[in-house]
Amino acid sequence: MDFQIVMELSAVATIIGVIVSYFTFHKTSKLSYITQERKEWRADIRKIVDELEVCPFSKKKRVLTKLKTRINTYGKLTEDVGKDSHIWKQIEIIENCRVKEYEKQKDKLILFLSLLLKDDWERAKKEVIGEPAKGIITVCLSFAIIFSWIGIFQANGINIRDVKEVQKGIIYTSPGMILIIMGLIGCFLMINVLKQHCEGEIVVIDVIWTMALIFGVLILTFGNKLSIFIQAAIGMIIFSGVLSLLLDIGKYVQGKRYKSYVDKIKGDEKSGSK
């Protein structure tokens, strides 16, 4: 009997391992592709910088047109520095400047592009470092689901050593657990969508959902004696939320730093013109 339980638990662990391995492989493949694309993009920007450095006033249009196809087009329609809005403005200034102002404005554009390259390189490094953390989050949430399931069995008096009781418990609790899993997936998808459309507030979103998670857990468990499995599941879920928050704080800080450097270049230009 005990051997059968061990085999079933091993099978569950194997399935989880396969799922985690699949997602890890998928993310690694996608990361490799994106990394290669960004490497080629950085090489293109460097070539444009070299061309821009020696480009005379009469041939500026060709180089600037080439640059326009390598930067974020959304930046032309917004004031978001993270979408290259400052580069689009500088391109427009160069397109309309006089010959005597050309070299000065061109140097400023080269500074912006150099800063863009540095920022992209730093983001690429942090994304590679952050991939293991995302894997840890996935593993923690997977085990949180398993531990929650076991905790539900114990709360309902199901002996996890009794195979027949466990089988019945799985049958009766599967619909509820599937709903919980679907709810978690839906929440994460919704959070990711919010982050994509509210880039400046990603940390705020993380703080809100992490605090909501903690308070929700406290409300649901207040006054109840929890099994060690439920406690472990709660701990893993909260740990995953905090780890996600820390990753996004890093992105937020880097974005703020990049904007401050852009503002400094603009400030140096203003002070130099006085």
Automatic annotation (TrEMBL):
Domain of life of the native organism: Bacteria
Keyword terms: Membrane, Transmembrane, Transmembrane helix
Transmembrane segments: 6-25, 135-158, 170-191, 203-222, 228-249
Domain PH per the UniProt entry, residue ranges: 1-50
PROSITE patterns cross-referenced by the UniProt entry: PH_DOMAIN
Protein name: PH domain-containing protein
Organism: Roseburia faecis
Lineage of the organism: Bacteria, Bacillati, Bacillota, Clostridia, Lachnospirales
